[in-house]
Specification:
By secondary structure, this protein is α+β, with helices and mostly antiparallel strands. The chain folds into 2 domains: 118 residues, no CATH class; 82 residues, no CATH class. 27% of the residues lie in helices and 34% in strands. The strands form 3 sheets. Strands 1, 5, 7, 11 and 13 form a 5-stranded mixed sheet that branches. A 4-stranded antiparallel sheet has the order 2-6-4-3. The protein has a 4-stranded antiparallel sheet with strand order 8-12-10-9.
Length: 264
């Protein structure tokens, strides 16, 4: 069962990906289209209603023979249907993020058992059928090379202050980021890497091997056009850490075609 509810958080750690494609490879496009089109006839009822409430949360609730969504964006439906993250869905028009819908898709009871036997991911298949039938969604998967950073130690070792033992297991972790500054108490390095990812607009993975929590203060000269060099220099000088650029393979879901659905 998958369920999602967005909340305002003190520090956002979502990672926008800056793509540099190299030798993109398409895969499974034809079989994927065949699978989704096979589900659509099994949908007994589909209700799609615009949601203009302006609220900031959304849910998707699966049941044995149906999927209900409240205040959900088309991108959210695609993410749940194909088990991908937001940054893996590319080629999508902007309205996939701005329009919101209340949806109920139900499979005929007589078909639900057969569908469940045929696919362990029944709810994802129902959503795929809905998107194919009502949103005219066509997608394919590609593997692309993307730039990332690895966070590693400098040769001289880290310059980090471990958090006091009294705070080591505390839930009162405080982290602030923005305007050329990151400060925090009891910060795991993996968390620091996620915050750096947001500041840099590129994934950062923790390769330091450090497992303790640290009190961190990092400052650099903020530059909206190019913060990478300033952050990299500050990390080395102030924390004894550095960023090493790498290229990794990542799979993406490419939107080839999508339409706004007719609504109730």
């Amino acid at each position: 069962m998958f369920f999602r509810k967005s909340l305002a958080t003190f520090v956002a750690v979502s990672v926008p990906i800056v793509l540099f494609s190299a030798n993109p490879r398409q895969s499974r496009a034809q079989s994927q289209a065949e699978n989704t089109s096979a589900i659509a006839p099994l949908l007994k009822t589909v209700s799609i209603k615009p949601n203009k409430s302006g609220i900031k949360w959304e849910t998707i609730k699966p049941e044995p023979d149906r999927v209900n969504a409240t205040n959900e964006t088309p991108r959210g439906l695609i993410r749940c249907a194909y088990k991908v993250e937001d940054d893996q869905v590319i080629g999508a028009p902007s309205w996939l993020d701005s329009k919101r819908y209340d949806i109920e898709a139900k499979v005929a009871t007589s078909e639900a058992g057969e569908l469940r036997k045929a696919s362990p991911n029944q709810n994802e298949r129902i959503l795929q059928g809905l998107l194919s039938d009502r949103f005219k969604l066509a997608v394919h998967r590609e593997t692309r090379q993307i730039p990332v950073y690895e966070l590693v130690l400098v040769a001289e070792g880290p310059n980090l202050q471990e958090s006091a033992p009294a705070y080591a297991e505390s839930n009162a972790r405080v982290i602030q980021a923005g305007n050329g500054r990151i400060t925090g108490r009891e910060v795991p390095i993996a968390t620091l890497a996620r915050i750096l990812s947001e500041q840099l607009g590129r994934p950062v993975s923790d390769k330091t091997g450090l497992t303790n929590h640290y009190d961190v203060t990092l400052q650099w000269e903020a530059n909206p056009e190019s913060s990478g060099p300033a952050i990299s220099a500050a990390l080395q000088e102030q924390l004894g850490l550095k960023l090493e650029p790498q290229q990794v393979s990542k799979e993406f879901l490419v939107v080839d075609h999508v339409e706004t659905p007719s609504t109730d």
